[in-house]
From TrEMBL:
The keyword Phosphoprotein does not apply. InterPro entries: LpxR, Put_OMP_sf. Keywords: Signal. The keyword Manganese does not apply. It comes from Xenophilus arseniciresistens. Residues 1-35 form the signal peptide. It comes from the Bacteria. Coiled coil: none annotated. It holds the Pfam family LpxR. This is Lipid A deacylase LpxR family protein.
């Protein structure tokens, strides 16, 4: 076998514990920056009809429409959660996401930093008009992809290439009732500059795992771009969402770019105590992970515990994938990809006060011809509202 088998339960728990400890350390550091509240004034008549929003829920400058809080999510994906002998394919990913409160608009709302408002003047085509609520999502992350036998230093021609991707993303969500549209622009680089070799071998050294020896055969440096658009519809029964309830969220959309192009559709089912008023808990969706605007109805913004289980599916018709097809403009290793790919995921999400923890496990169909094992990986997310 190409890696430590981790067959003994003790070794597995130690390795997972080290990773989760590292994750929590990163999560604590990521929560250092937060938005500050501003004052809201109301006339005496309005004050007798409704309470004035708390100072901590309004941005500086104080628009009553821009109520809400910033949210930071730190997500770690790893095939270690898929079981032993799964150190292959999409082997590791780390994503830091910052989500704005509900916004009045993208150009003048004081909730947004001046740099973001300036950026939106050039990306106005990605935003959506005519919706009741809107917000923005900023992400930075890294993904690693490897063949099955990482002990080999030679080129493994019948397995996928080594590839690292470093990506920066800006997204726009727009909501009316139970309908959501989300658009994301992703920019980054694939190749040695994405630091995939350094990241994987540093993590393996930390947990006492085998060094990956084949990174000398990875894809060459290439700038990548991807535009992602999805539409979502939520169906929920008309009852008190502060207790036990369920909902269903359908999604359909696609992406285009030299990173990956596809069409996709799927559904997510949730059941639990005090379901959030959002559009899904699976972290792989563009509008998952607490990123969609909320109306506060049945949300878990208050104190106390809330939790639910979820099952999600996604079917993709893939046209190109640089991590399988190889470099677009340079000679590189590649494999014959499968155009139809499906995911089945399931997990749990727990919320207490401003904190949320979610764990999910994903089973994926084979992504290229001759792939020996079905990919399985897990995802752990820690979130905090500010």
């Amino acid at each position: 076998m190409h890696r430590n088998p981790l067959g003994k339960q003790g070794q597995t728990f130690i390795a997972r514990g080290r990773r989760l400890a590292a994750l929590l350390t990163l999560g604590a550091a990521a929560t250092a920056a937060q938005a500050q509240g501003g004052a809201v004034q109301a006339d005496a008549a309005a004050a007798t009809q409704a309470p004035v929003p708390a100072r901590s829920t309004l941005c500086a400058g104080g628009s009553a429409l821009s109520q809400g809080q910033w949210t930071a999510n730190l997500r770690v994906d790893n095939d270690l959660f898929g079981g032993s002998q799964q150190d292959q394919g999409y082997t590791n990913g780390v994503l830091l996401t910052v989500v704005s409160p509900n916004l009045v608009d993208y150009l003048s709302d004081p909730c947004l930093p001046a740099m973001a408002r300036g950026l939106n003047r050039y990306l106005s085509g990605l935003s959506h008009d005519g919706f009741e609520q809107q917000n923005m999502v900023f992400s930075f992350g890294q993904g690693l992809f490897t063949p099955q036998d990482i002990s080999r230093s030679d080129l493994i021609r019948d397995d996928r290439p080594y590839a690292g991707a470093l990506l920066l993303s800006v997204g726009y969500n727009a909501r009316s009732g139970d309908v959501l549209r989300t658009s994301h622009l992703r920019l980054g680089i694939v190749g040695p500059s994405a630091l995939g070799r350094q990241t994987q071998n540093a993590v393996h050294k930390l947990i006492g795992d085998q060094r990956a020896n084949g990174w000398g055969n990875q894809l060459r440096d290439e700038f990548v771009v991807q535009f992602v658009h999805e539409r979502m519809q939520r169906w929920a029964p008309e009852h008190d969402r502060s207790g036990w309830s369920w909902d269903a969220i359908g999604h359909w959309g696609g992406a285009v770019g030299n990173l990956q192009s596809y069409l996709n559709a799927g559904v997510e089912l949730r059941y639990g105590w005090r379901l959030p008023d959002d559009f899904g808990s699976t972290p792989l969706r563009p509008a998952g992970e607490n990123t969609a605007p909320t109306r506060g109805l049945g949300s878990v913004a208050g104190s106390g515990w809330a939790g639910h289980a979820f099952v999600t599916t996604d079917l993709r018709l893939v046209f190109n994938d640089i991590t399988l097809n190889g470099n677009t403009f340079k000679n590189s290793h590649s494999v014959d990809m499968r155009h139809a790919v499906a995911d089945l995921g399931y997990g749990l999400a727990l919320t207490h006060g401003p904190w949320k923890f979610a764990f999910a496990r994903y089973h994926r169909t084979r992504e290229f011809q001759g792939q020996k094992q079905l990919p399985v990986f897990g995802s752990f997310t820690i979130s905090r509202r500010f």
